[in-house]
What does this fold into?
Amino acid sequence: MTSEPTKVLFVCLGNICRSPLAESIFRHQAAARGVAGEFEVDSAGTSGYHVGAPPDARSVATALGRGVPVKGASRQLRTKDLERFDYIIVMDAENFESVERMRREIGSEVRVHRLREWDPERDELDVPDPYYGGSDGFERVHDLVERSCEALLDHLLSERVRA
Ligand code: 4NP
It folds into this structure.
């Protein structure tokens, strides 16, 4: 077991709906399993549209209803993140392309994955953007982020045992 925490950065477009939620759910699940100290977790957006803004109130309300606090302020992804984090977990194909472009530009070896690679009930690879939809969209996003993060956590824990 390595002693250095595994550094995981969740990334979406605005860093107000999906990635703060994934960050919070992952942190909550790690704490529930008693392994919070094995991870360093953060989130960022590929855009600067909402820099400084709190998480979307609909993401916060849905998560709070399930006992998961969602906090923080939006920040934009920077090249330094690709050097600092071990994993960048993106929400959709557009985020993937943005991060991959950045990764190629600086020759980083950070591992870039889409969250739903770990979704056991995956019907598509994107975490849909709930920003312009209703509250049922946020409930659905919460469900699929929750089950994907649980499986991602299993995967990262098994990697730490092997390392
Ligand atoms: P997020 O959602 O990427 O999950 O934070 C969005 C938030 C804002 C916008 C798009 C997506 N926007 O276009 O302002």
Remarks:
- The beta strands are 6-12, 39-45, 87-90, 111-114.
- The pocket of 4-nitrophenyl phosphate is lined by residues 12-18, 49, 129, 131 (CB under 6 Å).
- The chain has a mean pLDDT of 96.
- The first helix runs from residue 18 to 32.
